[in-house]
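Dock zinc ion; give full complex structure.
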Amino acid sequence: MDPAVAHAHQSALRSISRVVTEIATPTPPQQALNAVAEQLRHGNVMVLTGAGVSTESGVPDYRGPNGSLSRHRPMTYQEFLHDPQASHRYWARAFVGWRVMQAAHPNRTHYALVELERAGLLTGVVTQNVDGLHEEAGQRNLIALHGDMQHVVCLSCGYEEARADYDARAATANPTYLQRWAVNKDDVNPDGDVALSEEAVEEFVMPGCVRCGSQRLKPDVVYFGEPVPTYKKDAAYAMVNAADSVLVAGSSLAVMSGFRFVLEAKKTGQARGHHQRWPGTRRRSRRHPVAHPGGPGFRRDPG
Ligand SMILES: [Zn+2]
């Protein structure tokens, strides 16, 4: 690797390790509930969400001792750009893992946020997640800071293809692959990456770009080591500036792209609600039955 690329790659690896090791202590449930209720009563809240809001949907979490990062790390942007072997390995793994991601559906947290939006209490939602579940739940004013898994972009010519179309081409090129290399759903990363044996990786036939034939393909998602597009950052700053407070749900803000919005909010003197996760959004916190923000008035379903 070119030294500048190697440097960027190393810096991305450090970000990844921060995600694993820097875990915030969740706000105690009753305290969180009171603070969130007060915030919402006032209205004009911007919500920033992370992986914790999607774990109940079966989307795995990178974090913590049992997080998927402890088993294998995600790709860096530099690897997609400059390391054809790593990219091939990614696409073999993603071919298998994407199915697990497709099976996930929004949970009560996603729907509660839609209800809050309909009640006129939110300026909008900024998410670090790439699973598309806020959108599927019906969130309108939404900025997916890191993109989503529904498109594949060619790094050679810029062509963008629907993920479903890419996947259909991959399935044609690898007709018996899925039967032979089935995986456990717990082995999937939030970006749809799974652990596969070297043998399985080698066997995968990777389709190239429809337009130029290049195999330098990447999900249209912001990877570690890759900047968030300026227009998205600007839109998120505008959203935070229009808000009276920021509520952080399901994120410890270890990744700077989300953290900077909280800094911005703080700079402009807004109140801050920081909850690593909303109690009740993770299976293991079901022992706190109350703690759903908004309380019993909120329906689980949008309809
Ligand atoms: Zn291309």
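Observed: Confidence is low (pLDDT under 50) at residues 274-303.
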